[in-house]
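Lay summary. Proteins are chains of building blocks that fold into shapes, and those shapes determine what they do. In this project we predict the shape from the chain. Here is one chain we studied, written as its sequence of building blocks.
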Amino acid sequence: MEQGRRHPVRSHLKLSPQCFTNALELCETDPCLENRKYLTVGNIGRLNRLLERYTKAPELLQQALALADSLHGPPLQERGILVGELGALYRQTNRHKGAREMFASQYNLAKKMGWKGQVCRVIGNIGMANCQLARQIWRDSRGNGEAIEEAKDLTHLAITQLKDRVQLALDIQEEEDAHAHS
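And here is the predicted shape, written in a compact code that computers can read:
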């Protein structure tokens, strides 16, 4: 599985599917690896997203989430990554409400776990999803006053979220600088 994860980074996308397929076969044949199956399925889903296979990717990522949730003591960090992948996929395929829901779920988990870096990244993703959703609502409004107001409200919310993201990034950088100098 580690080989499959490294290949997309190195632009060897053709090698990744075979590595992940081999890892999935191992997970299915060795009972000791059953709890790793969600990671493998999630990585296959991520790879499909990267390869723009937008019909396969969502079902694989949803399957990986279901597998992760079925484990005793679900793996929270990996679950957050899977939810983020699904959110990114939804954004790429113009399903902005779905993206916003996935990113909100990821944000809540990161906030609960105290993962400042993840909170920072996710609040930016939520802001961008809201911005894109506002643009979509605006285009589809056809002069409908309520829709225009909703788009304006979402735009203001997105601006606030993106400003929060910048401030949080600055705060994190300041903390890192303080630790480096101490």
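What the prediction tells us: The helical segments are 2-9, 16-29, 37-50, 56-70, 76-92, 96-113, 116-140, 145-180.
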